[in-house]
């Protein structure tokens, strides 16, 4: 009898501790749910919003091809780039882009505000900087300043470079006469060149934007975690390819000759080279969206200046709209970062 009473008293005295442990376990389960839910939402929103940069011209110029063929091609590149980075950096699939952005010790619900906002914006077909939108809430002020500086320079460099290049080549490759003279024999060569340039660009974009997709997950992934995340990404890609890029694909379709395979090849090549040389100068994350919009802006100005001067106003309007849209993302991301700081207090 005395023994039973002692056991009961011991349990009663330690009940608060058991209750505390139960709360901790529930809190950990909730945080794990937020981590995986955040990854899922961020993966879809980032790929859906940024797909126009790398695969937009590919989808536009191959609109007659079956979607699953295009998906299979892009999926092979994705798998190779992800697994190569995982092996090279000992489990880090972001190629060091998150070295200065550690995973928070706790993951409260408000960290979902950023990917959810990006998801809503993407559904409206507005291209924004997913780097600013997702990474700002995890980053220090110093890191954010570095990302903004690198992205602004990237936009200016892309605009000036594309402007100069297209002032040289626009008459030869973008005029109506040049497009009409693209015979079937040459078209086959350009088709091979376009798929090659797309593979190169797609791999360079993934190296930059894996940070935005994987910021919710541990910085060193185990093999099961790698396979789980890869399966999720391939499923998201299948949905996006089946819908031909969604509403945001209109940004590319509105630009001059983007359905022409030669034009699409040149855009992908120039953009890929910019990401390769400028994006890999250091491991600071950058907005690939700003660089892409810069390439399109410089290209449009050159083409309209040389070939369509009577429509220059239209070109400036399109460029202004695109620039305004990407700045919406910057403003919203900064607002969300401030909101999260408020919740932390």
UniProtKB/TrEMBL annotation:
The chain crosses the membrane at residues 34-56, 68-88, 109-135, 147-169, 189-206, 226-242, 263-281, 287-306, 326-343. It comes from Zeaxanthinibacter enoshimensis. Keywords: Membrane, Transmembrane, Transmembrane helix. The lineage of its organism: Bacteria, Pseudomonadati, Bacteroidota, Flavobacteriia, Flavobacteriales. This is Phosphate/sulfate permease. The keyword Transmembrane applies. It comes from the Bacteria.
